[in-house]
Amino acid sequence: MPATPAWPPKSLPRLYVGGPLGPGISIMLDAGQANYLGNVMRLQIGDEALLFDGASGEWLARVADAGKKRMTLNIERRTAEQEAVPDVWLAFAPVKRTPTDWLVEKATELGAARLIPVITQRTIVDRVKLERLEAIAIEAAEQCRRTSLPEIAEPRPLARLLAQRDDRTLYFADEEGGERAAGTFKPGPALLLIGPEGGFTDDERKLICAAPSSVAISLGPRILRAETAALAALAAYMAVAGDWA
Ligand code: SAM
Question: What pLDDT score was predicted for residue 232?
Fold first, then answer.
């Protein structure tokens, strides 16, 4: 749930709830959400909130019943259609917990469709708590007014990632040099691949470069931290070939 905003809030509180949502449907919130709307945002019977389910857009709802840790809202009307984010997947070698959390939050705001933790030879963290990353993505989507949620995929080894990516273009961020990102990104299904803090090994670089429709991209002359490189690549893609273009 978003942090406590200034009072009164500029916009209606917004929550992700399990669907389906539709006119006249009544939604009972879980205890945490009821506590947030009731005790943090101080919503009372008759007050409005925005709900989305990741599939049917955003809906205006009104508080119908409220108690200490319970709340029911009735759906009234749709306030936003379901968005179609660009078909861009972001594969990143997990780094420490805080920068990984940060990466997931920002990649959700930037519009990534799918986030894939990839295990490489120099990956320092090979286990990630998917539930935790999903909760971070939900909070970021609530905040940035997304109506879709990025899929957070199971971590996988580099070889499996390269084998299971259907025919999308692989843009491989290579600190050792590559094509200028801005001139290379093209609209269409894309996979952005970011290496670990220690970088890819030469064997891995050969494997990636040998993969069909893979292209090495440069993110400029400076060596970026892995989490910075991930967001720089995603922002550049969105600006050139995504929904900012
Ligand atoms: N170990 C490498 C080194 O010291 O040269 C640096 C790796 S960097 C911290 C982590 C990842 O971010 C790299 O594997 C690459 O995918 C990406 N990256 C960082 N800076 C980049 C740049 N200027 N161009 C392209 N990719 C970059």
Answer: 97
Residue 222 alpha carbon, nearest atom of ligand 1:
23
In tens, the pLDDT along 105-142 reads 999 999 999 999 999 999 987 778 999 999 999 999 99
Q: State which of 223, 225, 231, 237 you would mutate to test the pocket of ligand 1, scoring each by most atoms of that ligand within 8 A of its C-beta.
A: 223
| DSSP letter for each residue of the chain | -PPPPPSS-SS--EEE--S---TT-EEEPPHHHHHIIIIIS---TT-EEEEE-SSS-EEEEEEEEEETTEEEEEEEEEEEPPP----EEEEE----HHHHHHHHHHHHHHT-SEEEEEE-TT-S-----HHHHHHHHHHHHHHHT-SS--EEPPPEEHHHHHHSSTT-EEEEE-TT--EEHHHH--SSSEEEEE--TT---HHHHHHHHHSTTEEEEE--SS---HHHHHHHHHHHHHHHHSTT-
Atom of ligand 1 nearest to the CA of 172: 16
Query: Which amino acids bring their CB within 6 angstroms of ligand 1?
Result: 173-175, 194-195, 197-200, 218-220, 222-226, 229
- Measure 227 CA to ligand 1 centroid, in angstroms: 10
Enumerate residue ranges in the chain where pLDDT < 70: 1-10
